[in-house]
């Protein structure tokens, strides 16, 4: 009987050891050196230079900081409803983390899940995007991320630095983007405080952006385009109008400025994506709790000028501006 008990205890010990070695647990490596493969879904609102760079930075940083990660990138082609479909698909697939590139993508992901970690990027103001009053800088739930906000008062002042006699500024923005409305409000507030009249005109999609832009050009001395994803995806359409009419145009980011702008105060979207990727790696490795992670801001926006457009308008690029290549 004692021998039988010894044999049974020995077998139980073997089974227990096998179970421990096979269940390395969560995010850690097992005895065989194999680690969990993390699954990350990326939902990007639309394809254009800035958002593409942010996604590239994110994926590069995530792959550099995690050994085993599978990333699925999906683009909503500018449609908010498609963002929701993509986000819900990621939830159904049980991904470990969702990266939402642009405000509508973030809003869609937040609507889809309150459990899976969500990191936003290329989002200007999270309090506005998520409807949080008196936003403290930390969402405090399953959401965090990085902001593409460059000081809006400095962007507005840039117009007056180039053209001190400006009387009227037009702003083109998409009515479907909450953070575009926020930027319009802040830039208008600053310019009007300087005695400049602001005419803000919105569009709903690419079908009416040409009409809106052309109408504004007939009313204003200069044009401002915020970090608006729909406007960025239609930068060539805007360029064909403002360059023909020789209306000096200022932009909230480099991609639009490269197409048609005089100057911009811009961030580096690739590096913004890199920072988002580093945040994701910490969350997935269990080194940080997303609930405690504040929104990260790009520290040093850069003043850049488009020499080709400046030459067309007979403007000399001022000192202190980096020329866009």
What does this structure look like?
A seven-stranded mixed sheet has the order 7-6-8-9-10-12-13, with helices on both faces. It has a six-stranded parallel sheet with strand order 2-1-3-4-5-11, sandwiched between helices. Helix content is 46%, strand content 19%. The radius of gyration is 25 Å and the shape is elongated. The protein has 325 residues and is of the alpha/beta class. The longest helix has 21 residues, at 2-22. The protein has 13 helices and 13 strands.
Number of domains: 2
Q: Which CATH architecture of the largest domain is right?
A: 3-Layer(aba) Sandwich
Spatial strand order of the main sheet: 7-6-8-9-10-12-13
Main sheet makeup: 7 strands, mixed
Distance between the amino and carboxyl termini: 86 Å
Q: What's the CATH C level of the largest domain?
A: Alpha Beta
CATH superfamily caption of the largest domain: Response regulator
Helix run count: 13
**Helical/strand content category:** alpha/beta
Query: SSE order, as H and E?
Result: HEHEHEHEHEHEHEHEHHEHEHEEHE
Strand content: 15-25%
| Average of per-residue pLDDT values | 89
Helical content stands at 40-55%
Radius of gyration (CA) equals 25 Å
Give the low-pLDDT segments: 1-33
Tell me the number of strands. 13
Kindly identify the CATH topology of the largest domain. Answer: Rossmann fold
Choose one word for the global shape. Answer: elongated
């Amino acid at each position: 009987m004692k021998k039988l008990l010894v044999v049974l205890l020995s077998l139980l010990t073997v089974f227990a050891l096998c179970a421990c070695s096979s269940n390395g647990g969560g995010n850690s490596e097992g005895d065989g050196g194999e680690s969990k493969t993390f699954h990350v879904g990326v939902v990007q609102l639309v394809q254009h230079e800035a958002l593409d760079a942010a996604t590239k930075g994110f994926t590069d940083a995530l792959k550099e900081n995690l050994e085993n990660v599978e990333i699925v990138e999906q683009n909503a082609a500018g449609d908010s409803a498609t963002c929701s479909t993509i986000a819900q698909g990621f939830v159904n697939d049980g991904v470990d983390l969702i990266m939402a590139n642009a405000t509508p993508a973030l809003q869609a992901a937040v609507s889809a899940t309150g459990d899976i970690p969500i990191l936003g990027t290329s989002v200007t103001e999270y309090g506005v995007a998520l409807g949080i009053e008196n936003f403290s800088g930390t969402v405090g739930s399953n959401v965090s991320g990085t902001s593409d906000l460059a000081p809006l008062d400095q962007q507005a002042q840039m117009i007056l630095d180039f053209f001190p006699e400006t009387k009227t500024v037009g702003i083109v923005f998409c009515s479907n983007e909450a953070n575009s409305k926020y930027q319009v409000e802040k830039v208008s507030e600053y310019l009007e405080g300087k005695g400049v009249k602001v005419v803000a005109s919105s569009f709903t999609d690419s079908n009416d952006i040409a009409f809106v832009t052309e109408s504004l050009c007939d009313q204003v001395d200069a044009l401002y385009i915020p970090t608006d994803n729909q406007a960025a995806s239609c930068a060539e359409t805007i360029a064909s109008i403002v360059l023909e009419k020789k209306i000096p145009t200022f932009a909230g980011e480099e991609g639009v400025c490269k197409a048609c702008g005089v100057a911009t105060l811009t961030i580096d979207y690739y590096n913004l994506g890199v920072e988002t990727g580093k945040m994701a790696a910490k969350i997935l490795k269990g080194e940080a709790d997303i609930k405690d992670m504040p929104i990260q801001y790009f520290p040093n926006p850069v003043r850049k000028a488009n020499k080709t457009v400046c030459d067309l308008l007979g403007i000399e690029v001022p000192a202190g501006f980096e020329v866009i290549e």
